[in-house]
Amino acid sequence: MTEEPSSRDRGVGIEVHGVDTIPEPDRTGRPRDVIGILFGSNMCLGVIIFGWLPASFGLGFWASVTSMITGTLLGTVLVAPLALVSFRTGTNLSTSSGGHFGVRGRLIGSVIGLLLSLGYGALTLWTGGAAVVGPLHRLFGFPNGAWGYSLTYAVLSLLAVFTAIFGYQLLTVLSKWVAAGTTVLMIVGLFAYAGKFDPSPVVDGGHLLGDFWTTWSLSTVAAGLSGPMAFITLLGDYSRYVSPNRYSPTRVFGASALGMILGLLVPQLFGTFTAFASRAAEDYVGPLVAAAPLWFLVPLLLSGVFGTIGNGGILIYSMGLDLDAIVPNLSRIQSTTLVSALATVLVFLGYFVWDAQSAVTAFVLLLTAVGTPWAVITLIGFARCGGSYDTEALQVFNRRSRGGIYWYTGGWNLRATAAWAIGSTVGLLSVDTALYTGPLISITHIDVSFLLAAATTAVAYLSLTATATRPGPNGADRETSAPRTAGV
């Protein structure tokens, strides 16, 4: 092992890399940086609010807690190994998936990643805005109508996109400060809301889906499993900066798993506790602010500002990389600016048009159903090739050229694409939300869309690729016995 990069090598400046392969001298990240960015970036209202979802479904406190822990741990088992893919390739996960889907087929991962980050980024700005407007209104009489929210959303969006444009190094530093500050806030918050805590259900009328286990299953997926699944494409944005010449895969995997578990369960369990303390049923942030002691409003306001900037910056950064991968002629900065505008539009729709609980729940369940098959195929492909990739061949599409060992059929691995489509279809048909119920629910009775999608994809992919050429020493499994030649 060589010595760790110096502080000078790790200075904060505008990141020059997009989805290109990070050269070894620039891979200055450490496993503890991965923990810091996963933990710190999630200490915000956009993640805390998922702890409120089980309460809004009609579950009691302990049922809410067990559903979230179960879902989070289950999701981490699947998602954390994805960090090792980018650790090996030096590029983001959607580009890395080209080794298994083809250099054009990896657009599936880019689109999934863009939609995941877009939705969660909008949710972060939306909830963060409410956490800013509410305290300001109580403390100083700041307008809490459309004008006040619009101004707040605009300012938070600008600050988030600023951090996203600077990129990896600034986000790493900011996440550490946000993690420390928000952890203190949550500890203080336990005392602030303790006197009002009541573990009984906050919703009148029973469980959302009619019975306990069906609703508990929904909570496990929507509030627990959805957390790790949000990282299926963006986890590699940070592990790609960790050098395999200095650190072992075990340390990177452990850092990714620990960062996700801490970064998800700590804020979400705080959200569950405060949801029952504030008796938040139809909405979370409003009752949270209303139930807060006057002295706690300033810490809550600071969390709304800095937590939103940190988490929003992370998600906008990831969106920029995914759009950069989809439209290679856009720079990372151009892509980041464009997707931040899209996220802001979704924020306004979330405030003025959509119902919070229904929109969030349907969004995470549907994207989990199509994201899980992609993750399963990427992980199986990674295991098959032993983590050995042709990093130059992965960049063919980004360089607007053709050929290479991942060209497959016109840039698409049709077998992998078919397996993904089959798994996604089964997942979508077995989703159960208040807005949409898949026909397979009449057979399963509870939402097991994640498990069905994962199992179906694995069987389909292994079956469809059983006759494919096995991985060579420099790449993933190929459908043809010889690679195409490169050409423009």
From TrEMBL:
What is an example of a GO molecular function annotated in this UniProt entry?
transmembrane transporter activity
Any one GO CC term of this protein is: plasma membrane
Q: Which residues cross the membrane?
A: 34-53, 59-87, 107-126, 146-170, 177-195, 215-236, 257-276, 296-317, 337-354, 360-383, 404-423, 443-464
What PANTHER family does the annotation carry? PURINE-CYTOSINE PERMEASE FCY2-RELATED
Q: What is its main location?
A: membrane
A Pfam match is Transp_cyt_pur
Q: How does it sit in the membrane?
A: Multi-pass membrane protein
Q: What is this protein called?
A: Purine-cytosine permease-like protein
- Please tell me whether the keyword Nuclease is annotated for this protein: no
| Keyword annotations | Membrane, Transmembrane, Transmembrane helix, Transport
Q: Belongs to which family?
A: Belongs to the purine-cytosine permease (2.A.39) family.
- InterPro entries in UniProt: Pur-cyt_permease, Pur-cyt_permease_Fcy2/21/22
Location within or outside the cell: Membrane
